[in-house]
Amino acid sequence: MASDIEIARAAKKRPILDVAERAGVPADDVVPYGHDKAKLSARFIKDLRPQTLGKLILVTAINPTAAGEGKTTTSIGLADALARIGAKTMLCLREPSLGPCFGMKGGATGGGLSQVVPMDDINLHFTGDFHAITSAHNLLAAMIDNHIHWGHTPRIDPARVTWRRVMDMNDRSLRNVVSGLGGPGNGTPSETGFDITVASEVMAILCLARDAADLEARLARIIVGYTRERDAVTAADIKAVGAMMVLLKDAIQPNLVQTLENNPALIHGGPFANIAHGCNSVIATQAALRMADYVVTEAGFGADLGAEKFLNIKCRQANLVPDAAVLVATVRALKMHGGLAKDELATVSYSALDAGLANLGRHIENLRQFGLPVVVAVNRFTTDTSGEIAAIEAYCAKAGVPVALCTHWAEGGRGAEALARAVTGLTAQRAEPFKLLYPDDMPLFDKIETVARRIYRAARVEAPRAVLNQLKAWEAAGFGNLPVCMAKTQYSFSTDPSLLGAPEGHVVRLREVRLAAGAGFVAAICGDIMTMPGLPRHPAAEIMHLNAAGQIDGLN
Fold this sequence. Notes:
The chain is of the alpha/beta class. The chain is built from 19 helices and 25 strands. Strands 1, 2, 3, 4, 5, 6, 14, 15, 16, 17, 18 and 19 form a twelve-stranded mixed β-sheet that branches. The chain has a four-stranded mixed β-sheet with strand order 20-22-23-21. A three-stranded antiparallel β-sheet has the order 7-12-13, covered by helices on one side. The two termini are about 15 Å apart.
């Protein structure tokens, strides 16, 4: 079979105006970016007033492994399959970050015959949203430094600036830096650092805002630092909000593209799920629910991270009620969770598979805590045996969860029709109400401990006294009602990435907490997780190039 980029390059795309017409978007409300991508106008989003909302389907997965699970591929395959069985469907995904594109992954637009296109544009600069978010974030940083330089009021203590800079690239050397060197004319020397753009609070704000007015109000609430008297200073205090809105005026509009089967997809926003809240924008999701009978969306990494944050943060803030969850797994990844090395995964090992199924079972239990009906999607590989598939089916039958075998990578939407029918069946007979994991009025540390105990199955959470005092101070300042956004490794339920399967009784070590007052959550940074990733030993960038025809090779 051809590579992903070769398949995408050969795709028979429809003009984006045709895709928009199929989705019910008038031509006057389409803002084209070339022939195959566009933004939806703010007027169209504002005027959407349906009689009923579509069904919201969350696609999540087991803890990711080097073997691959195919969550995005499954989301796209499911959307195409729902369209094939006659359901008006909209797909909602996040925008890829340049960091992982040039680092580990090489691309994030699905694979095989289940992709969104134009693949190269979406993976790279797309419509400029990430550039706008990066620029707005760093404009605020520059205005903070300028505010201090000129001695404006309120007088920010240079040692208490909490706003870092961002860039959309993995660069470990920028995690901690000293700025303002070279004398008084070059600013005030201070310790600071860079996070990756997908960890920016501006990214989180854009993805959680309901509309432009809410975006502006949230930007105004960003806390950038404190005075010597420990009074909070906000973006509004330094008069940065208006200029930030200018930079974000187009980025707030959702992007419209298409699948290989010419079905509409909204791709908008892109916070990571291991260091941020891991969901596409509320604006795109709510628009899609008003445009389609079924909306397929995904949350990043495994269900312990992306799905937990989708449910406890995004659904809480946007009053969304998901109708079902799809839990993606592969035989290969389950065997890896059961102890097999990557180069051993072609070996049939029922003992490893049985051990790895504990990871799948843990995620099923966790999703049920939210009252969500669950279907397991087995993303099938040609090396999977009928016996291994039967073992997964037997395990899920015992757990009372339906299973759908999926071959959408090789067959497109046709290979996910069984999953589509399982999803429509689940949403038609749902009985249990949706519920959040913790109430707003629970103390912040108790919220962190609730996630750690009930989702990660940790014995306890350990935190330095300074972190505990900081949480108490934020509660006293009126931020105790915010949800928590856990930042930890995606590879394990624990904070140790090598501890696979379904560990219990481990300790979650809380290293740092950050207040995202504009986004509306408290980030809890655990273990060794970094908010600025580094490149691997051999990054995907090493094999990327322009071929003789001027086309991009090396994306996948």
